[in-house]
Amino acid sequence: MTLFEKSQEEWLDYYIYDPENKNKKRRISRNMAYGSMLAKGLEDEKATGDPLLDLMAARLPKFELMDIAFEADLKDKKGVIRVLAKPDTCKSDYSAFKEYKTSVRKWTQRMADESGQITFYAMVMWLKTGKIPQDIELICVPVEYQSDCSLSPTGELVRLPTKRTLADIIKMSSRARRAWKGIQKLVENELL
Question: Residue 76 sits in which domain range?
């Protein structure tokens, strides 16, 4: 959804013309690659090979489900839109979730409160259960560049509890419907 809103051309390239991402030359920063290492280690339940990053991974609070995708139906005038969420960790009853960020930039409470990704996950959980998750947290693992230009965790965990309201869910639902309508129109035009 975010990629579509940013650039319809990039969306077409990514999802339609090269869905296996064989020809992608998307810029991945060192910071993004380092964060992906943590995510992959958590998802595979294996050490990353970076002892400090593995120590931070062990310190992260976790729920029963780790990196498990789930779907829900968002009703639209023309039918149903299938939406998918994959939070870093959530309770099996979808009443709580946590999202991890590994970053050199400092995450703030305001950033957590305004995160579209977190609102989207809360919306999908609400669609699935009829309840807004009450225990939502963005957890940042701050990292910094070392003298050799490598990245390393600072040792700190920044925990930013956040809430979502029904108004937030309704706004995100409208945004998702608009994006889906735009995606359908774009694909239809592309096929003509």
Answer: 2-191
